[in-house]
Write a structure and sequence with these properties.
This protein has helices spanning about 1-35, 45-50, 55-60, 60-85, 85-105, 110-125, 130-140, 140-175, 180, 185-195, 210-235, 240-260, 275-305, 310-315, 315-335, 340-355, 365-395, 400-430, 435-475. By secondary structure, it is mainly alpha-helical. The protein has one domain (about 20-200, about 210-465): MFS general substrate transporter like domains (Growth Hormone, Chain: A, Up-down Bundle), CATH 1.20.1250.20. Helix 5 (about 85-105) runs antiparallel to helix 6 (about 110-125). The longest helix is centred in the C-terminal third of the chain and has 40 residues, at about 435-475.
């Protein structure tokens, strides 16, 4: 009898942790699906263009429509989760995302596909900011949270690479439409399981900040739209300048509003931490560098080396393996060395990998010129993202976790848009005709510069630590 009671007690103790671990897995699957959609259609764009009759300029909006809605509404999605319950808002967003994935796969015209992609982005913006908050509540303990953060970072940084691989497989073997249809069974499965394995977070009642919602959403949408427009038409165009000015004015109005209201959409207190601001800048720069590298290397692989969609996706596999391999050891490395040293090593590795790729020449091959830099890129990205995520979310009160997550992912999307716009402009200005190599080296050096910006940002944390220690020594003397 005592042994029977003991076994029952053990099973009861194990069950919550097992359920929580399952909850972490379910939420991470949803996050992976949201991240995949930023790149999964990349390698399918030529097929989409042929099938639906897109113009060259219009085709970019298959990607940009998603990015615009996703990046513009993340802060709002985070705040809605804080107020109405993160699991509930996560579920609503995922349902919207899944529905319009289905409708996008069924699209028969460019207008229908772009509209579906934009509505997918709205769903993603509601779901994504609440992922980290749900991971925090689903993890059984501090070690579990660190593991969840590491897996989240691996999914966020490696998901883009996996999206290229999956997009290539689906486009070559079935149809480009399955790059969207694949979301439907995954989304339905997550929606069916999330209520069982993921606990709802406490609601934080309070007046909703309408002015903050309008200015934050309008400002982010204006900036992202202007950056996308700059990459397509140029930085000096009136529409680009106007979008940036309107965005800056709206974001300035957001700052004034949030300092005065009782329940702000964006808590300015989150930006008082030097470490958090440095990490946010680092995240933006790293995502900008990675997104621009994806864009450039797809051009090189498909146009210069003649790879098809499937082969191009497989070519990115070493980077993805590096990211996910590092996710297994990064939590232990953080516990031993801290976040900052790992970020310094990781961002340095990213800069070296992009500079290495910039050396590609007329006689370069995939095995001789691309493979090893790809491996280094994956390892460095895996070493960088989890510590950056931990720096951003460290010390955030539970009731503001959704807002902090929304802010972090907004910086990811803005960083991706800025990086891609800048690097694409350099590439377009230097490319001669259809010679990919003529603009590739300088464009990849621009990606290198973005990685160095992330490095410099985190080094300011080291500088501030040294300054404080010197002040302490002087006072002690």
């Amino acid at each position: 009898m005592p042994s029977l009671k003991l076994s029952r007690a053990r099973s009861q103790d194990a069950s919550p942790d097992g359920g929580r671990s399952t909850g972490v897995l379910i939420v991470l699957v949803a996050q992976l699906m949201l991240v995949l959609d930023a790149t999964v259609v990349n390698v399918a764009l030529p097929h989409i263009s042929t099938d639906l009759g897109f113009t060259p300029a219009g085709l970019s909006w298959v990607l940009n429509g998603y990015t615009l809605a996703f990046g513009g509404l993340l802060l709002l999605g985070g705040r809605l989760g804080d107020v109405y319950g993160r699991r509930r808002v996560f579920g609503v967003g995922l349902a919207v995302f899944t529905l319009f994935s289905l409708l996008g796969g069924l699209a028969t015209s460019p207008e229908l596909l772009v509209s579906a992609r934009a509505l997918q982005g709205i769903g993603a913006a509601l779901a994504a900011p609440n992922v980290l908050a749900l991971l925090t509540t689903s993890a059984p303990d501090e070690a579990g949270r660190n593991r969840a953060f590491a897996l989240f970072a691996a999914v966020s940084s490696g998901g883009g690479t996996l999206g290229l691989l999956l997009g290539g497989v689906l486009t070559d073997l079935v149809s480009w439409r399955w790059t969207l249809f694949i979301n439907v069974p995954i989304g339905l499965a997550v929606l069916a399981l999330v209520g069982r394995f993921v606990a709802e977070t406490p609601r934080r009642p309070g007046r909703f900040d309408v002015v903050g919602a309008v200015t934050a959403t309008g400002g982010a949408v204006s900036v992202v739209w202007a950056l996308i427009n700059a990459g397509e038409h140029g930085w000096g165009k009136p529409t680009t300048v106007l979008g940036l000015v309107v965005g800056a004015l709206l974001l300035a109005a957001l700052g004034v509003t949030e300092a005065r209201v009782a329940h702000p959409l964006l808590r300015l207190g989150l930006l008082r931490s030097h470490r958090r601001v440095a990490a946010l800048v680092g995240i933006a720069a790293v995502f900008g560098a990675q997104m621009s590298m994806f864009f450039l290397m797809v051009q090189y692989l498909e146009i210069r080396l003649g790879f098809g969609p499937l082969a191009s996706g497989v070519a990115f596999l070493p980077a993805m393996v590096g990211v996910f391999a590092m996710s297994r050891v990064t939590p232990q490395l953080v516990q031993r060395f801290g976040q900052v040293p790992l970020i310094v090593v990781g961002t340095t590795g990213l800069a070296v990998s992009f500079a290495w790729m910039s050396l590609l020449g007329p006689s370069s091959t995939y095995a001789g010129g691309v493979l090893l830099p790809m491996v280094l890129d994956g390892i460095a990205a895996g070493l960088t993202m989890m510590p950056l995520t931990s720096l951003v979310l460290g010390g955030v009160e539970p009731e503001h976790a959704g807002a902090a997550s929304g802010l972090m992912q907004t910086m990811q999307q803005l960083g991706g848009a800025v990086g891609l716009a800048v690097v694409a402009s350099v590439y377009a200005a230097r490319t001669v005709g259809h010679d990919v190599l003529s603009g590739l080296d300088e464009a990849l050096l621009a990606s290198t510069t973005l990685s160095l910006l992330a490095l410099l940002s985190i080094l300011t944390v080291v500088g501030s630590r040294l300054g404080r220690s010197r002040v302490g020594v002087g006072m002690a003397d």
